[in-house]
Amino acid sequence: MNEQQQLIKDTLSRLLTDLCTPQEVDAAENGEWAGNLWQTLNETGLALAGVPETAGGSGGDLEDSLLVLHEAARFSAPVPLAEHFIAGLLLAEQGAVVGDAPTTIAVGDFEIDDALNLSGSAENVAFARWCGEIVLAARGTAGMKLCRIAVAETDLTPGLSVAGEPRDTISVSRQLDAANVFDAGDDIEHRIRLMGAATRSVMMAGALESTLEMSVQYSQERSQFGRSISKFQAIQHQLAVMAGEVAASTLAADCIKESFASLNEVDIAIGKARTGEAVSVCTDLAHGIHGAMGYTLEHSLNHRTRRLWCWRDEYGAEKEWQLLIGQKFVAGGADNLWATITDQS
Amino acid sequence: MFQGMTFEPGSLPEGTEALRQEVRAFLASELDPDVLPNSDFNAGVSAEFSRKLAEHGWIGMTWPKKYGGGERSFLERYVVTEELIAAGAPVGTHWIADRQSGPLLLKFGSEEQRQLFLPKIVSGELFFSIGMSEPDSGSDLASIRTTATKTDGGWLLNGSKIWTSFAHTNHYMVTLVRTQPPSENRHAGMSQIVVDLKDENVEITGIKNLSGESDFNQVFFDDLFVPDNMLLGEEGNGWEQVMSELGYERSGPERFLSAFRVLVEFTREIEENGTDEQLALLGRLSAHLVTLRRMSISVATMLESGKLPLSEAALIKDVGTTFEQLVPEVVRQAANPNASKRFIDTLNECILHAPSFTLRGGTREILKGVIARGLGLR
């Protein structure tokens, strides 16, 4: 971690300790937009840390943005940082600038005709109801287009993820202004999927670290049979297993951060598959250690674990990415398997 | 992550790629294609192969030139060792001397000992064994009962060591003994002594493991005289020395690649007509492997900068050996019903060795205790 990154991490950590308390996360789950938090993240430039300044960002490198997502996930920040970052990047590629209000990403089935009539729908659009705009990919008559549209110009049906965060369904049937339609490469949907999976992997690594910290702390505070349960070997061993999974997740996510600029497909696949697998192990153990207390809404463990259960399925669950890795690795042949592995940075 | 548990990012320097290719070319010319490779570092022994590695400067790579070493980096050594293990090369003979006895001698040994042993380890002429476990002392290493009693000009050893791999073929054993009776501080009063395994007063009895191989032994001392100059390090400092040895022992590629040849043969099985389930399994296991490599490279990078990351090393061994045992199990379940003999032989050989993966170098329970200490729980 360089100096700039350490600064981002420390600043964000202080800021989120104040502005993203468990009460704030609960409030968001009860339908209150965390406007104050968003405004601060936006004004400090943290929301777009790695997006070029010419596109409204802070002009750091992309690793910085992913670091922000990693840290924010440690606090379960109920704001669409990942989506806003992806939208900011995609618009920046087109020379356009993302707005101050959060922008989200819709992944669905959209078409746009030559008169720029956009139609289609998407499910599970993160935080759509609280966003100003949506960025999406649509099939044009002569190739893929990237479109931006105000949320107010869509039909929105509210929905929630298992984490209690907005995952709304939107449908669109409207003519767009030419300024809001851009030529995109035919791989735009794939690139959005890769970016989405990358952000989710990094967020999972952050939330997993926090889950381990909470579990260690709880085990030291909770006393049974006359001593803190952290003194029991059975508990220590469960925490050790968690630590192994968390370390693996963090390293897999770090690798995604380093190679994000080139959207390395295999790095992202490995990160998403590995962190996703760690979620199953760690949420099971964390809840076991926390006992009934961790099963309540009162304890903030659920803020982390429910988001982990949501994120592991978004932008492709483990199986999808494992298959991609398997197909890539088998293609080199058995006798080259080792070379294929060492070629992965 | 935690104060006692940090994985600093590490990566292999540019120059290591040429070295990697050099090792691959060597292996391609040396390994007998008729012998089914086994990537368990303890499974293959060949003093001749070890001497050839020595000719290339691949033993004692990181050690000072004045002892014959190569003064190369831990990351260069990492590359060589992972290439050897992945290919299933017979590295068992020199492995311990190169991995831990040499570094131990460098750190704690006398100048005389270094001059005596290191150049011959580097040239592939001297091989070492580990003398830690005893019949009644496994995980509880501090309970060892082998004693060394001071006598004129040396020490008299009594007791026995067990599970000593290749004691019957190797030359020396770094032996943990009690030089003081046990006291309130259980870790006090131990020392390390270099025992000449060819001494006629050392009795070595082979023990067959469940695969029928006789690679490990019980070693007996009955008033064995060892001269003063074979005391390694300080008298009474044995525990600390043994612990530092374990930092080198636990984080290397041999802790997650033991089942790699199974993965290779599974890949061969599904090369043509693999189902999505089989391909996804290959993908899943590869994701684990790539990540473990990064963890191990991270620790090699820390070793290079002079740190001794003990809890991180324990964590890699725990996660890595869990993975090594997972591989044969899940691959077996996903295999084609008409699998080739080559695949089945490789798989079965791995299954027969797999129980040892989580025993040697510290059991799962011991490692998890070390990790728990890193988390601040002990």
Report what the structure shows.
The complex is a heterodimer of chains A (345) and B (378). Chain A has helices spanning 3-19, 22-29, 35-43, 62-74, 81-93, 188-221, 233-259, 265-294, 301-311, 318-331, 337-342; strands spanning 103-106, 109-112, 117-126, 133-140, 143-150, 155-157, 167-175, 181-183, 223-224, 227-228. By secondary structure, chain A is α+β, with helices and mostly antiparallel strands. The model of chain A has no long low-confidence stretch (mean pLDDT 96). Chain A has 3 domains: 1-79, Acyl-CoA dehydrogenase/oxidase, N-terminal domain (Butyryl-Coa Dehydrogenase, subunit A, domain 1); 101-186, Butyryl-CoA Dehydrogenase, subunit A, domain 2 (Beta Barrel); 188-342, Butyryl-CoA Dehydrogenase, subunit A, domain 3 (Up-down Bundle), CATH 1.20.140.10. Chain A has 11 helices and 10 strands. In chain A, 54% of the residues are buried. In chain A, helix 6 packs antiparallel against helix 7 (233-259) and helix 7 (233-259) runs antiparallel to helix 8. In chain A, 53% of the residues lie in helices and 15% in strands. Chain A is globular. In chain A, a hairpin with a 2-residue loop joins strand 4 and strand 5 (143-150). Chain B is of the alpha+beta class and 378 residues long. Chain B folds into 3 domains: 16-127, Acyl-CoA dehydrogenase/oxidase, N-terminal domain (Butyryl-Coa Dehydrogenase, subunit A, domain 1, Orthogonal Bundle); 130-239, Beta Barrel (Butyryl-CoA Dehydrogenase, subunit A, domain 2), CATH 2.40.110; 241-374, Butyryl-CoA Dehydrogenase, subunit A, domain 3 (Up-down Bundle). Helix content of chain B is 46%, strand content 14%. Chain B has helices spanning 16-30, 47-55, 74-87, 92-108, 111-122, 238-250, 260-270, 276-304, 310-334, 341-357, 364-374; strands at 128-131, 147-151, 154-162, 172-178, 190-196, 202-207, 216-227, 231-232. In chain B, strands 1-4-5-8 form a 4-stranded mixed β-sheet, covered by helices on one side. Chain B has a 4-stranded antiparallel β-sheet with strand order 2-3-7-6, with no helix packed on it. In chain B, helix 4 packs antiparallel against helix 5. Chain B starts with 15 loop residues before the first helix and ends with a helix.
